[in-house]
Amino acid sequence: MARTPTIREVAKLAKVSIGTVSRVINEATDVTPHIRKAVESAIEELGYVPNAAAKSMRMGRSRTVGCILREINIAQLGGFVSTAQNAFMEAGYALLIANSEGRRQREIELLRSFSSGQVDGVLMGPYTPIEGEFEEILRDLPVPLVMIDRDQPAWCEAVYADHEGGTHKATSHLLRLGHRRIAILTGPRQLHPGAARVRGFLQAHADMGIEADPALIVAESFLRDHAYRATSSLLGLSKPPTAIIAGGIDMLSGVLRAIRTRGLSIPDDISVVGSGRNDLSDLHQPPIGVVSWDQNEVGATAASLLLDLITHGKREEPRRVIIPTSFDPQGSCMPPRQAEGRD
Fold this sequence. Notes:
Number of domains: 3
CATH topology of the largest domain: Rossmann fold
Number of strands: 12
CATH superfamily of the largest domain: Response regulator
Shape: elongated
Structural class: alpha/beta
Strand order of the largest sheet: 2-1-3-4-5-11
Strand content: 15-25%
Largest sheet: 6 strands, parallel
């Protein structure tokens, strides 16, 4: 009895990815005529009988994965989305991205929509604190779930950056430069990035025997507008900070706007550190120091975890993958005026 050819063999003969073969089979409109002809020729030559659609119907699968993001236009998320999408397409899945705008009700609505059979798995980095009713909604999802940059709930698989380590490095650098009034702006402590950054910030102070001023720790929101208002308020203090750490990938623009409004110069008047390297941090003059991590690695890891859960089911012990962070001071960090005797 002749062996049945596989979709992988079709892809190899046509010199395309498995995802491309899947898109041709499913009559996707984003395939060029040249590629479509190559795939169809390979299918005919091998005698491959596409049965993915029939198999999906029998198994109740949509061959689609859902991804809920707070804000889809944040530049740093481009690498994450692109890499994850490529991984899913290679496996024959489409990636459906939804924008929650950081609103609790919107996140709940999207989760319930995804629970109705639209997707086979979910990637999510919720802005809503993971507790009470919201955690129950997550637990009741009928499909696998992988958390992005969240370390809760403990029963869920997750991939997140080492924000604690990165913030510790940045804070330690500023302290060694002579800064003693360092402010940190980040998200709520109920969410991993906010809590981890505050831990790293406080530990760096403790390691050097320096007491951090609680008034300079603003852990309330990751939004850029909040960063602007918080920075403006801090700069209006009788003893303003000499350095600010923007602890969120969308916060730097708000911090810089507030500093410019005050007519201050970076780094002569104030040192600044951002989170996540992007065009804003690199093209600013001087370039802004950043705590960064590989968003491509986050995307690839998250996709791999979710595909494994879809294929093999839930594990007894959930996997937690921590992505390392690094700190590059670039040109925005220098000793404060007091430390240089320039008052």
